[in-house]
What does this fold into?
Amino acid sequence: MKKTDCFYLGRIVKKYSYKGELLAKLDTDDPDLYDNLDAIFIDIRGRLIPYFIEHSQLHKSDLLRLKFEDVDTEEDADALLKSELYLPLSILPKLEGNKFYFHEVIGFQIVDVNFGEVGTIIAINDSTAQALFVLDRDGQEILIPMNDQFIKEVNRDTKTISVEAPEGLIDLYLE
It folds into this structure.
């Protein structure tokens, strides 16, 4: 399995018990969807390795308590600390309307209702307080906040997102 065929689910953050149980911090708005997994991919030195889950349950709000097969000691658990967790893209529920997954809109065109065609989404920057569309317009980088008030329509058929950016925002990048 390749990372490009998967989505990032979270990271193992600490041990839960001396029996090899671990706690993973999930990067999701709906952790309940991932409460009863059978298996998960763990990034071990750049390779995704499947691990089968004996049992799992939500622990507090966004932590998932995991017990993997063949991880039975603290030493086994130590080897997995800080590892990233992945699942196949195929298990993601389909989103409709103006909701979308970040990976889904890479390559979409952004069209502003006032400016017209702005550029192509090349990345999503979610490391800031407000997630941003990172666009390429003929080699020029343009950043547009991913704000529900700005996003007017997501059209999956034409691979376009219609936005109404604040007045003058796009022009700042083009001057």
Summary: Residues 106 and 122 are 6 Å apart (CA to CA).
